Structures are given as C-alpha cells and as structure tokens.
C-alpha cells in the first residue's frame, strides 16, 4: 500500500459510523417507538397508564444520574468499555421489558434503559465527535444525532406489525422487545469491536488536532475554572429551561391541536403531524451545519427564535382556516427548535467552555436538561388539570423560552469576550516563556 493510499484512509469515518449506529439503536429503536407499546403492555398486564407512565420518570432519573458523573465514568472506564457497558444495559433493559409480569420489573427495565442511553446515546456521541472530528464538528454531530429520526422511522415500521393487536396476540409486544434485544446485541458487539480509542486517549487526539481546528473549537477551561465563570450558572439555567419547555411542549402539542381544531379536522391534523416527524430527521443535521457556517450565536438565534414563533402559533391553533394554518406552521417548523435539547447542548458546551473538560461539563449540563425532560411533561399536564386547557401552559412555555433566548445571547456575548481575553493571555504567556528559554 502506497504512502498516499495510507493517508487517504481516515479511521475517523469508522468512528462516525459507530456513532451513527449507537444513536440509531439506543434512541431510534429503544426510545422513539415507546408509544407503540403503551396500550399493549398496560392492557395485557392490567396496569393503569398513570402507573406505567412512571416508567419514563425512572428512565430520565437514571439518565440524569449517569450524566452527572459522566466525566468520572469516562475517565475510569474509557470510551470503548463505556460503550460495551451501555449496550449491555440496553440489552438487559429490553429483556426485562420482554419478560415483565409486574410494573416493578418494567421500572427496573426503565432504569437499565436510562443507563444504557446515557452511556451510548447523545452525550457519549457528542464527546466522541467533539474529540475526533474537529473540522465541521457541528455538521458531523448533526448527522450522527439525525440517526434517531432515521432509525426511529424504521423501528416504527418494523415493530408496529409485530406488536399488532394485543387482543389477538398478547405476546406481540414481547416479540417486538426480543427483536430489539437481538438488534442491540449484534450492533453492540460490532461497535465495540470497531471502535478504537485514540492513541494516548481522547485528550491526546484533542491536542494533536488543535492546530488544524476550524470554527469555534478551542482548548477551553478546566472544570474548576469553568464553574467560577460568571456565565456558568446562567448557562445551566438556560439549558434546563430548554429541556423543560421543549420536552413539555412536544408531549402535549398533538393533544392540544386535536382538542382545538374540532372533530371535522382530526384526520387533517394527524396527516400534518407526519410532516413533523419527517422534518425532525433533517433538523439536527441542518442545525449542526448552521453552527459550522455561522457560529453559535446565529445557530441559537434561529433555533430559539423559531421556538418562540411556533409555540405562539400552537397557542393560537383553532378550527378556523387561520388556526389550521398555524397548526401546519407548528408541525413543520418546530423541528428547527427541537435540536436545541440535543445537538444544541453539545455545541453550546464546546463553544462556551471548550475542550479541556468537555466531558465533565457536558455531562453536568446534559443532566440538567434531563431533569427538565423529567419535570416538563408533568408540569404541563398539571396546568391542564388546573385550567382545563393547555393554552396557559403553552404561553408559560413561550415566556420561558423567550427568556432563555435573550439570556443565551447575553451569555454568548460575555463568553466570547472572555474567550478572546483568555486566548490573548495564554498567547502572551507562551511567548514570554519562549523568550525566557531563548535567553
């Protein structure tokens, strides 16, 4: 093999393919189709849906707990062992779901699911891509996280007929879980074999590629230094609000539309919602691309500005022609807001705090977003119980996301000024040290 041929092969693309498979299986097959199982599981096992819904709470609690210690787990295990453990946890989760005869086994499966998703899902993939793919990191990360929508669509098509009618085949949903278990096992073994840690560790890869980096990737701060920055806590609060609002609104939007458009327009709304799912497949890639081309400020301005507009449209949906148009606006364009809770968090942490302690800071921030996920839907529904409508909850969400939007623009301004100052000080210190050595 010639030297030129050797240089052309870049194993980074194998790593990217592994990341795509990790997201596609952990989120696309384990999370996206979860609504398909609700009716069958609750009816066959005779479990009230409100009790079964705690399954989601246990899942997000596990995700938040693992992400809180993500940096420490990464340092102790390394990426490859962490991936293997994550897939093992996902496999165990689906086995527990498949054999469960009581809600407590389902809750145990939810905890395993949360652990698995935290170890091989978007947080780990974000860390890997941020470490390995310095050039166009946003576009590559967006491509990998888009696997959720792509594989989720496949999972829905494959699993729905297997689950079938639970009154005819009460074991259909169990067979679907066994199929997912088999897929996870095969993909987990494949990814664990193909994944290679960077020589000297991921931090070594960072140092090696730093000189060639483009865009907003930079060395950044150690965690102890980062947490003393004036914009650290405001960043955490804004990211929590993003998780809280987007998760809560996404959980009630279709129900709110159906309740306000009248019986004659129900089929129309369901058809429109199909475009929402399709648009989500491309939105994460587009968000990453915008980040690479225009930077974090423009990226978040577009995503958060869109969120304010589409949520306002959602609040005004009714059975008039204008109301139906607003429903279409929400269904299609809300896909540009939702990436903030996934790819947006990863890009914001890397841009604001840098690569030095990226895993530790990302884990903490993602944990707060997960807490937002866990409380968003219950609070939105509590407002409905009090008011008899989701409209008030949606207006509260509009105010919250607007506040987060303004807050993030201020944070970005302060953080970028601090970065310029820090880089100038480090350059001056390096020059002074070099002059001392020469002397």
Number of strands: 0
What is the CATH topology of the largest domain? Growth Hormone, Chain: A
Query: Major β-sheet, in short?
Result: none
- Estimated share of beta-strand residues: under 5%
* Low confidence ranges: 1-6, 203-216
The CATH superfamily title of the largest domain: MFS general substrate transporter like domains
**Class inferred from helices and paired strands:** mainly alpha
* Overall radius of gyration: 23 Å
The CATH architecture of the largest domain comes to: Up-down Bundle
The number of helical elements comes to 20
- In total, the number of domains comes to 2
Keywords:
globular, Growth Hormone, Chain: A, 439 residues, mainly alpha, single chain, 2 domains
Secondary structure layout:
Elements: H1 3-8, H2 12-29, H3 34-45, H4 49-52, H5 54-68, H6 70-77, H7 79-99, H8 103-120, H9 122-132, H10 137-145, H11 147-163, H12 172-194, H13 202-209, H14 223-226, H15 232-260, H16 266-315, H17 321-333, H18 343-353, H19 358-387, H20 391-438
Q: How would you portray this structure in words?
A:
This protein has 439 residues and is mainly α. It folds into two domains: 204 residues, Growth Hormone, Chain: A; 220 residues, Growth Hormone, Chain: A, CATH 1.20.1250. 81% of the residues lie in helices and 0% in strands. It is built from 20 helices and no strands.
């Amino acid at each position: 093999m010639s030297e030129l041929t050797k240089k052309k092969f870049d194993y980074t693309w194998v790593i990217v393919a592994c990341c795509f498979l990790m997201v596609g299986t952990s989120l696309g097959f384990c999370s996206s189709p979860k609504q398909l199982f609700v009716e069958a599981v609750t009816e066959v096992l005779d479990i009230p849906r409100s009790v079964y819904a705690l399954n989601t709470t246990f899942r997000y609690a596990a995700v938040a707990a693992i992400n809180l210690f993500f940096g420490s787990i990464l340092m102790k295990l390394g990426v490859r062992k962490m991936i293997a453990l994550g897939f093992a946890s996902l496999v165990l989760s689906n086995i527990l779901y498949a054999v469960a005869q009581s809600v407590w086994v389902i809750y145990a499966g939810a905890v395993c699911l949360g652990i698995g998703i935290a170890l091989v899902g978007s947080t780990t993939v974000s860390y890997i891509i941020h470490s390995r793919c310095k050039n166009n990191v946003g576009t590559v990360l967006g491509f990998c996280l888009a696997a959720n929508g792509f594989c989720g669509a496949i999972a829905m098509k494959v699993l729905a007929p297997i689950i079938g009618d639970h009154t005819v085949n009460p074991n259909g949903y169990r067979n679907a879980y066994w199929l997912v278990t088999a897929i996870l096992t095969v993909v987990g073994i494949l990814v664990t074999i193909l994944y290679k840690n960077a020589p000297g560790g991921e931090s070594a890869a960072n140092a090696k590629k730093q000189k060639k980096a483009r865009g907003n990737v930079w060395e950044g701060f150690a965690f102890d230094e980062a947490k003393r920055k004036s914009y650290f806590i405001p960043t955490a609060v804004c990211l929590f609000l993003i998780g809280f609002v987007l998760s809560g609104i996404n959980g009630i939007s279709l129900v709110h539309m159906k309740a306000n458009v009248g019986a004659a327009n129900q089929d129309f709304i369901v058809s429109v919602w199909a475009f929402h799912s399709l648009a989500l497949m491309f939105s994460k890639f587009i968000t990453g691309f915008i980040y690479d081309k225009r930077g974090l400020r423009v990226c978040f301005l577009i995503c958060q500005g869109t969120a304010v507009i589409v949520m306002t449209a959602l609040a005004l949906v009714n059975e008039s022609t204008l109301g139906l148009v607003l429903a279409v606006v929400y269904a299609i364009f809300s896909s540009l807001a939702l990436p903030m809770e996934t790819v947006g968090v990863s890009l914001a942490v890397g841009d604001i705090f840098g690569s030095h302690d990226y895993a530790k800071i990302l884990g903490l921030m993602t944990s707060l977003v997960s807490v937002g996920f866990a409380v968003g839907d219950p609070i939105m529904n509590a407002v409905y119980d009090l008011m008899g409508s989701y409209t008030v909850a949606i207006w509260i969400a509009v105010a919250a996301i607007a506040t987060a939007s303004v807050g993030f623009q201020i944070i970005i301004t302060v953080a970028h000024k601090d970065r310029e100052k820090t880089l100038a000080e480090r350059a001056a210190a390096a020059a002074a040290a070099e002059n001392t050595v020469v002397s």
